[in-house]
Prior knowledge:
- This is Late embryogenesis abundant protein LEA-2 subgroup domain-containing protein.
- The chain is α+β, with helices and mostly antiparallel strands.
- It has helices spanning 4-20, 102-113; strands at 31-39, 45-53, 59-70, 73-80, 84-86, 90-98, 118-130, 137-147, 156-157.
Amino acid sequence: MVRPHTFLAWIACLLLVACSSGPVRRISEPAARIQQLSVGADGVWSVDLRIQNYSSIAMRFDTLRLELASGDTTAGTLEAAPQVSIAGESADVITLQLNPTAQAKLLLADALADARSLPYALRGELVASPADRGRARDYRVEHTGVLSPVPGLPGVLR
């Protein structure tokens, strides 16, 4: 038979141990991908870039530099200083303008004319730090994906 004061002591110890552990601060590599690409009348591309924070804490994204390519064709470099904080395990979208290379313009125009998908690759880095404190760190980004024309929206791919 367990004595009442021994039982209460065990319960108190268990509560103390349960309260001693705080939330886990896990910092993971972020990711970036194109959510939408729109071709303007002037030929400039509007790129909606989705930045994914896989960390358990909020991260501040200071700068990014990502090369956009499709196959062997380089479209250009997406550069920005978004200075945006993204909550833990969340994402946000920023819009960037890109004046693509002539080859990339032709490649995209051909894909849109034929209503076919266009593979793409993003390679570069994001600079981020914990939103509450901490040093900024460079994170390598390499993502491949496919953009498809959006029916009813000419010049838009998702």
